[in-house]
Amino acid sequence: MKELIKEIFRKHHDYYKSLGVETIKQQMAQYRQVEEAYQGRFIFELLQNAIDRAEKKVYVKLLDSGTLIVANDGEPFTFNHDFNYKDGGSDRGDFQALCSIATSTKLQSQNIGNKGVGFKSVYSVCRYADVHCKSLIGDNHEIVNFRLYDVFHDVDDLPSPDLAPILDKVQKENPKWGIPGYYFPQPLGDTPRHISELF
Fold it and tell me: What is the distance between the alpha carbons of residues 105 and 26, in angstroms, rounded to a whole number?
């Protein structure tokens, strides 16, 4: 199972490493528009996502450390390990939707949110968000933990050194731009105790 999860992350990273500079510039411009339009809405957007997914319960807690937890008791988070990034010929999983922009697995007729941008509102108050999810991968349930950054602006922060020339070209047009961090979710280690208790 752990190897399959690594492979899902690797495929996702490989696809986003292959994007052209022009595509990254366009998506950075789109991300900045979302950032401006969704400023101050992060609580609403996280609640909306939790309500869309919940079976019966939504849990919200602000820890003394300043960490905000928003959880729900809904269906497992999906990872489509066979997702076809190039041709789009397969259903995307929740992972593929969350780790991109303007893509969603939600149906407009059945959900409050379905534009695939609301989660990005968290970046108005933090540089990254951790996702801890009960996941259905194949026929198995697994707890998967990963971190989503907003934007990588500095060479030293990049998840892979081969992204440095791309970052340089993107920033030649606009020094405030970077490479969207949600392209490159970073797997985390063990589930923190205060999170595992929720599961």
Answer: 22
**Is the Cβ–Cβ distance between 149 and 179 less than 8 Å?**
no
Of 42, 63, 59, 38, the C-alpha closest to 50 is: 59
Type of residue found at 6? K
Dihedral of the CA atoms 162, 166, 169, 172 (nearest 10)?
Answer: -90
Report pLDDT for 109: 45
The residue written with tokens 């996941």 in the block is 135
132 in Cβ contact with 159 (< 8 Å)? no
* Helix segments in the chain, DSSP class H: 2-17, 21-37, 42-53, 94-98, 164-173, 193-196
Integer Cα distance of 165 and 171 in angstroms? 10
Contact 6, 149 (CB under 8 A): no
Residue 66 DSSP one-character state: S
CB contact at 8 A, 20 and 103: no
Look-up: residue for tokens 């070209």?
Answer: 169
pTM: 0.85
Q: Quick one: CA dihedral 94, 100, 106, 107, positive or negative?
A: negative
The stretches in the chain having pLDDT less than 50 are 104, 106-115
User: Which residue, among 28, 32, 21, has the nearest Cα to 168 in the 3D structure?
Assistant: 21
